Amino acid sequence: MTSCTGCGLVLGFKKYKFNKLWRVPGKFCKPCMMLIGKDWDDHGKITLPQRRCDLCQTEFYFLQVAWQGQKQKHFCDVCHKVAISGVLPAKSRKEMTNKFPIPMLIIGGLGAVLMVLGALFTLIGTTS
After folding, report:
1. Would you kindly state where each structural domain of the chain is located, as residue ranges?
2. Contact in structure between 73 and 66 (CB atoms under 8 Å)
3. pLDDT in tens, 58-76
4. Any transmembrane segments, and where (predicted)?
5. What does the pLDDT read at residue 25?
6. Which pLDDT score, from 0 to 100, does residue 117 have?
7. Integer distance in angstroms from the first to the last C-alpha of the chain?
8. Is the pLDDT of residue 6 over 70?
9. Three-class SS of the chain
10. 103 class by beta-carbon count within 10 Å (0-12 exposed, 13-18 middle, 19+ buried)
């Protein structure tokens, strides 16, 4: 399923696109289509800023506000439903670091050693 580029609402069979305005990418629900079309008519381009959803980190034009713990955050439609249901913990976990797990490094190192040994075997084995 595709979602609205404006608010993140999950779209069914009814999707709207700016057919003649190819500079406006994405598919929209009807309310977002009307607001973005009005902005286009007023300014000749889209002046509405795209902001990232605090949960899924996807850019949308229209975000909804909800409280998560002590902080006010901005969510797309799908993440807003999750946030107001109370499923999200008050304290979010720390950001995941970009470290590789140690077993993955060991397996990668063994793979590299086997590739080097295979290349040496091929080069040395063909000379005799």
Report:
1. 97-128
2. yes
3. 888 888 888 777 788 888 8
4. 100-124
5. 76
6. 95
7. 61
8. yes
9. CCECCCCCCECCCCCECCCCCCCCCCCECHHHHHHHHHHHHHHCCCCCCCEECCCCCCEECCCEEEEECCEEEEECHHHHHHHHHCCCCCCCCCCCCCCCCHHHHHHHHHHHHHHHHHHHHHHHHCCC
10. exposed
